Amino acid sequence: MPFISKATGVPLVKIAARVMMGETLETLRSVGLLDQEKIFSHTAVKEAVLPFNRFPNTDAVLGPEMRSTGEVMGIDATPGLAFVKSQLAAGMSLPKDGTVFISVADRDKTQGIQSAILFKELGFSIAATVGTAEALRKGRFGGLRYRGEDRRR
Questions:
Q1: What pTM was computed for the model?
Q2: Contacting residues for 152 by C-beta, under 8 A, at least 6 apart
Q3: Structural domain containing residue 127
Q4: What total of structural domains would you count in the chain?
Q5: Is residue 133 classed exposed, middle or buried when 0-12, 13-18 and 19+ CB atoms within 10 A define those classes?
């Protein structure tokens, strides 16, 4: 509940405790603890901070409890930027170059081509499955490798 409360600004634990004590949601609305309706214009992404970099000599295999050393949140108007913020807050660095692997279902090929174009414009190489590579080539997208091709090209 803490994540949802932080992401929404709604004090859910306080509301739940008061409801368990017999107060109604209408009463909580009348005292300003609960809005009638809340529409959010942001996305919040929660990311676990794992100990791999902090504790270099520890076992890197996760158990059922995941051995998380904390968590961070990224908030932004768009899901993509909220995700980026969560990764940066967790201490991850985002790649600025390299190869992006793309595998897209037939129904999503058009959107996949748009994503590939954006990555290409950012300077990334594109690798794709045979079907996705075919769709990208038909969309006049050159410079592709697909699984099974010689990676040295």
A1: 0.61
A2: none
A3: 96-153
A4: 3
A5: buried
Residue with tokens 């793309």: 102
Dihedral angle sign, alpha carbons of residues 45, 46, 48, 49:
positive
CA distance 8 to 10: 5
- DSSP one-letter string for 89-142: HTT----SSSEEEE---GGGHHHHHHHHHHHHHTT-EEEE-HHHHHHHHHTT--
End-to-end CA, the chain: 50
Residues 11 and 23 in one domain: yes
Strand-pairing partners, residue 73, are: 46
Band of residue 48 on the pLDDT scale cut at 50, 70, 90? confident
